[in-house]
User: Which sequence fits this backbone?
């Protein structure tokens, strides 16, 4: 048998399968065109995987075929993503040399702040408690003032009701008398019309 077919890696090396115009696959994927193509393949491949899974779940005709196409596409995408270049790590020690020195001299002000953090935390907690107590006291005072004003308004309404009740009763009586008077006059007019029409 042919040596090229016996060894797949040798076949790949001799035929330069992973080069595009003298550019390795890794460099191609790092280029703008490669990134766009990879993004396109990745998105469409994900669509095929989802379509295959949906067809299998919904028991569409040829669901096994769609699922197999989706999974093979996913294998291809993961295979290609293995050639993707990892993110570049920057050496911050070059910019900030203090990061190299583990026993670097730290400004005493910074050290003092670090030691005062627990005290600051305690002070902030006490201040918070005092403010909450003061807020609670103010809310109680507002409630008491509101209740006093509400009682005063209720008393005023009751006084108005008591003062207006006799006038209301008198007005109702007077209105009833006017209605009765109108009814009598209306009856007299109807009687007069009836007398004229019967003659």
Assistant:
């Amino acid at each position: 048998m042919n040596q090229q077919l016996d060894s797949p890696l040798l076949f790949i090396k001799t035929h330069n399968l992973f080069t595009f115009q003298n550019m390795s696959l890794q460099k191609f994927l790092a280029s703008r065109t490669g990134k766009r193509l990879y993004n396109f393949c990745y998105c469409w491949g994900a669509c095929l995987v989802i379509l295959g899974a949906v067809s299998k779940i919904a028991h569409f005709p040829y669901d096994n075929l769609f699922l197999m196409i989706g999974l093979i596409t996913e294998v291809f995408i993961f295979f290609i993503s293995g050639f993707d270049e990892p993110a570049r790590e920057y050496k911050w020690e070059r910019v900030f040399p203090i990061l190299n020195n583990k026993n670097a001299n730290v400004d005493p002000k910074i050290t003092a702040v670090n030691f005062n953090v627990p005290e600051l935390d305690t002070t902030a907690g006490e201040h918070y408690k005092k403010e909450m107590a003061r807020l609670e006291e103010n809310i109680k005072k507002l409630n008491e003032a509101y209740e006093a004003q509400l009682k005063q308004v209720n008393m005023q309404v009751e006084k108005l009701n008591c003062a207006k009740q006799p006038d209301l009763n008198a007005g109702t009586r007077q209105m009833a008398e006017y209605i009765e008077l109108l009814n009598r006059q209306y009856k007299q007019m109807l009687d007069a019309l009836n007398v004229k029409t019967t003659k």
Summary: Residues 30 and 85 are 7 Å apart (CA to CA).
